[in-house]
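User: Predict the full complex structure for these chains.
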Amino acid sequence: MAEAHPVGFQWVMEAKKRGATVIHVDPRFTRTSAVADEFVPLRVGSDIAFLGGVINYILSNELDFREYVVSYTNAATLVTEGFQDTEDLGGLFSGYHPETGTYDPVTWQYEGHEEFAQSHEDAHVHRETGAGIQHEAHGPPVSGSVERDETLQDPRCVYQVLKRHYARYTPEVVERVCGVPPEQFQKVCEAWTRNSGRERTTALVYSVGWTQHTVGVQYIRAGAIIQLLLGNMGRPGGGIMALRGHASIQGSTDIPTLFNLLPGYLPMPHFKQHETFDMWAEAIRHLGQKGFWAYARCYAVSLLKAYFGEHATEENDWGYGWLPRLTGDHGTYQQVFNMIDGKIKGYFLLGQNPAVGSAHGRAQRLGMANLDWLVVRDLYMIESATFWKDSPEIETGEIVTEDCRTEVFFLPAASHVEKEGTFTQTQRMLQWREKALDPPQDCRSELWFFYHLGRLVRERLAASTLERDEPVKRLAWSYPTSGQHNEPDAESVLKEINGYDVATGAPLSGFTQLQADGSTACGCWIYSGVFADGVNQAARRKPGQEQSWVAPEWGWVWPANRRILYNRASADPQGVPWSEKKAYVWWDPEKGEWTGHDVPDFEKTKDPSFRPAPGTIGVDGLAGDDAFIMQGDGKGWLYAPAGLIDGPMPTHYEPAESPLRNPLYSQQANPVRKVYDRPDNQLNPAPPERHSEVFPYVFTTSRLTEHHTAGGMSRQLAYLSELQPAMFVEVSPALAEERGLEHMGWAHVITGRAAIEARVLVTARLRPLRLDGRVIHQIWLPYHWGGSGLITGDSANDLFGITLDPNVLIQESKVGTCDIRAGRRPTGPALLDYVADYLRRARLDATHYAPLETPGAGESDGRT
Amino acid sequence: MGVRTWIEGWPVYRQLTGTDPLGRGQAARSARTDALEPRTKTADSVAKSVCPYCAVGCGQRVFVKDGKVTQIEGDPDSPISRGRLCPKGSASKSLVTSDRRQRTVLYRRPYGKDWEELDLDTAMEMIADRVVKARADTWEDKDDDGRPLNRTLGISSLGGATLDNEENYLIKKLFTAMGAIQIENQARI
Amino acid sequence: MAGPNSLYGPIDPAPDAGYTDAPPRMGFFTDTSVCIGCKACEVACKEWNAVPDDGFNLLGMSYDNTGGLSANTWRHVAFIEQAAPSPAAMDVLREAESTVSTQFLGMPSSTLPGANGREDRDLRWLMMSNVCKHCTHAACLDVCPTGSLFRTEFGTVVVQEDICNGCGYCIPACPYGVIDRREDDGRAWKCTLCYDRIGEGMTPACAQACPTQSIQYGELDELRERAAGRVEVLHQRGVTEARLYGHDPDDGVGGDGAFFLLLDEPEVYGLPPDPVVTTRDLPSMWKHAGVAALSMVAAAAVAFLGRRP
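Assistant: Here is the predicted structure of the three-chain assembly.
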């Protein structure tokens, strides 16, 4: 956190000054470790084993916050009789279908819900379309009516299921998998549990490298289970904080430019599952579910009204028929392979540099070299715009400038001070930026570019009679422009996002006003309220020192300016704060309403003792103690009966590339991970396959404080470049001795995809780990370098192949296996031969693919 | 300047007659030193902004004088950052004002060996033509069973996560209406 | 206003330099125990003061690639990795290499890397943002023949770039090796404690940017009190190695206007353990020189007078 989010880290230092204990778990000793009370080095890719060990510690010592757990989580809910755990099946859950490599999750359901479950064909579609990401704003659809055993004794209740699942995650197993000694692990467990409860809360902070694993979603789930068991969710000083790495990456999923989402986490229509409007709208929610997500139809209709305006009518299903349909995986990695295969004509890069910033850089560049045209919009010249003349593939002869047909447009972009608009920062806060001055020369905002591109395309299609051009012609595309460049008015776009009454144009005050009858339009339901009262709430800047510590009048946080989600859980079931010290929102019995420091995340006047009639659905179905109001059953999920493709509970699997056999189960790696079996995407062998010793070391990558992502905003600046002027690799003194690497000398790192060179920093901040009878060396690389800028160097992302998390289709680019050698890498065509030799030695030919299911998985193997 | 003023401005005179006989402080001040003031004080305008690097969302104040950004520093009012910035945020002025920034359109024609200059309006027209053509050439109306597809797989887009919400909204809206579904973002990465 | 301690010993430097109505002395307290080595101070300083970059050279000194304070680096973050290559790790490696099987047969577990938390505690990564000390007795200023270096009303020491002629006398005079000549223009440059900013009541750029308040700006007396309190707290928490550096008005430079809380000996950070103002002996030198000069005047007078019988 100190490395990549130094200013956010001020609050950790503040807490530390007040006596908080800071524990840092990381493969390498970083600037965060330097000021932490406890540094816990662990093997890259072993986090679920570590967190599973903590869960086991909590459950086997009954240290959970019992009253919170019983009332606010699904601990008491019963699971079907047919459910079989990884314990019983060698690392698989019940329902695995080897032919599709997906689960049929029918047995994972709550008792009595089996008929609601999706099939494994559905699961397959969900994986291909990354459907898991829809659940960022709300839980997956499940019925709210469940069977519970509040004594938590029934062997089929979630609490007992969880306890069995994690029973084998003992401190000894944690040591064998993670390399963390039991006495240190014990200290972490004790500190975490001791610091949680009525009087105290613990925060779990992760950086989004956690998402870059084939089990990335389950990493975060594992953290969520601990925080729910200890009663740290929905409370001040608690929670799970994702440290996102880009100014508006939260906004980029809320109002997505993602293939599988529409604004507000509504799914992009799938050609089969969502053939009609009703199928789409009904698929978003569960007919029997509780909570606000039951109103999904209002959000969907209002979005289509915002898109198509008066042309969206009840008669034409609000224009739903015009929306394009998914048939499977259309994600960025599938696109890259399609580019290599010549299927894609044109590509827009908008402030993004995949030649350096995306996994498997060579595939990225070869794909771009096989387009008809490419539009690059950026502040500085970046590697992705110049691959045709100076990429590494020019040197190897794989791209020949005169033979490369890609037509490239470089359009300079406006900087953050040359346009106005909102970023959504990592705690869901929208902050409006004022414009300081006009952009220079040809520089323009994306708002300008897309508004005018749309205008030009609409001009060209205005006279068309083709059905396919209807949605373009019917699009509501009228935004006021001003100034010398005809810049569209960003605030008018924000007003559309906020939503308005169609008849009067009056801005809505929040998403509870949205209707399914076409009387409201709203571009993103979760952002509704950002323009409440006709005021740009995101532009509020009441100084922090003039406000309460919650600072509700600075910016605007979705939903409804609520700073902590699910904050109903900060009070006990009766609505009384768990402790005076941790009071946040509470029930005021005299006024008959919820009140407190934040906007209560609950119906304002719903009494804590309220209990709905059985079978009541929607918001009315939420009981007075159903704190998790966006979940179909109103509860925080220790166990996920739906919505996850790779299992209801996090389970330790090895990374796709690992030098180690999974010490816990026969099943080696995530059995439903998304793979691309192609000759140009060779993955290094992992046990039980042979020849993994050709790539004996583990490597990981991350950021340096002094640089930003692919370097486009830092390697061009002298004041940042001088601080970290060269690509380097960090190795332990022991590995340096083993491989003859010299401090400040050159070394090169080799995988099945590439060999890259870097200067060597030998440092005790990296160290070998001993686990499961072996010494494991870990190597660390920053990923900021490329061929353009004041300082240049090889790109670490060239080393990675492409394998994805099945829930959200994010690549595993925080862990891989490699070799490291002293000296510089070969250059020119010799480089290709050099990598090919490694592939030969590892027996990786064009027909070799690692099977998803490992022999022995699916049977009770008794491995521990 | 009269002779008297001239003499009084002479450091040695000040040193001999003033309170600083050793000439190390008050008496040593130059005219430039006396006139020093922070350039933020003379700015024509100050915009309240947000740092464009990571997602902490630190407040920035952007000072502009004569149409140029003269300083970007932390906004002490922000309850998130309390006026502080990391090295990247502190380098924001360079990011915006650097001579290395590309400020004009560049064009590489197919099989071209180098960049060429291109007028922005022409570039926009050319891009619009290519979008319309790629869409028409790769349009998919229905699948084999007659289910609607309404899409093109001929166009891709990958956006950075430093785009504004308003920008992302228009991008997704336009591409969706055009049937382009391969729209992705750093958020996937 | 010059007093008996004008060149050595405790003194309030601004009144001594002729500021009759001087505001309180201002300074920096740099608390290295909360420094996270982000280098925001280096960048913020350069952006505000338009200081040139220092070249793009990987130095291999941990994460320090600007090397030290110079004409082009007025704030500098030092990184000190305190850990010898772990002998235990080497042993494990050799042991593992000598056995072909994956079965580990070697050392007792207590000596294995990561077998206990000790090595982690032994591993320290110290970071420290260094800066001009704005000495109470600033030799750079005392030797400056042009009056370019001067004492401000805030007690800080500043180079006047319009006066400096690049003679370079100040450079060997600095007991900390801070002030430096810039190669292209030959003039001397160093931290001004953002004289232009503090004159308007603003905070110096480095201190304003510092994410963790490792760099604190304020009235020196107040900072000294705060620093003493911080040391006390750290000692109570078992950080017995915490100590102040440059805070003492009785030290060899009369105390620094920019002082530090360190977690190890000053030498570890590249700081002189006992800096002394290089002009300490100037008064006695002047006295001797004065006597000599007077003798010469007397001799000359005698010679002159002696010609007239």
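Chain A has a mean pLDDT of 95.
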